[in-house]
Amino acid sequence: MDSKQLQHDRGELSKSALNDYHKAAKHVAEFLGKGRRLDALVSADFERYRNSFPKTWGPVSVNNRLRLVRVLFKYANDIEATDRTIRYTIGLKTVPKSVVRKDQATKPDKEFTVDEVWRLHDAAVTPMKAFVLLGLNCAYGTMDIARLRF
């Protein structure tokens, strides 16, 4: 986490990404045990961790969490935190792309009708009207708007 904090301090990592890493590290530590030695971890531990995710998580959420956790253990291997390599890759395999595509195909499109957009615009206060227009005309997302300078 110190490394990720330094990346954040240098402006290489957003605050939300830092928070995501922190949540993932805390979740792993709570699941595996805070006093557990890294060199005692085996693939079965990682498989149990992966299977502990809530059933309400979709495949994209699962893959996002797995990516964060793999980064943590890859970093531990890179800095040689243990005498032996931590074998985490088998237990932390991502959800296959075909499953992600099938899940996304079952969800409704994220599109607004012209009438819905005008109702959003008309109901919004002045700054939010600008955000709606930036989103529509420039494809700005929330982080794009948050990073705008005066």
Give the rounded overall mean pLDDT: 90
- Any idea what the radius of gyration is? 20 Å
**Could you say which overall geometry the principal axes of the C-alpha atoms support?**
extended
Strand content: under 5%
Secondary structure: number of strands: 0
Helix coverage percent: 55-70%
| Structural classification | mainly alpha
Poorly predicted regions are none
State the major sheet: none
Order of helices and strands: HHHHHHHH
Supply the number of helical segments: 8
The separation of the N and C termini measures 32 Å
Describe this structure in words.
There is one protein chain. The protein has 150 residues and is mainly α. 61% of the residues lie in helices and 0% in strands. It is built from 8 helices and no strands. It has helices at 2-9, 15-32, 43-51, 59-78, 97-105, 114-123, 126-138, 142-146. The longest helix is centred in the middle third of the chain and has 20 residues, at 59-78. It is extended, with a radius of gyration of 20 Å.
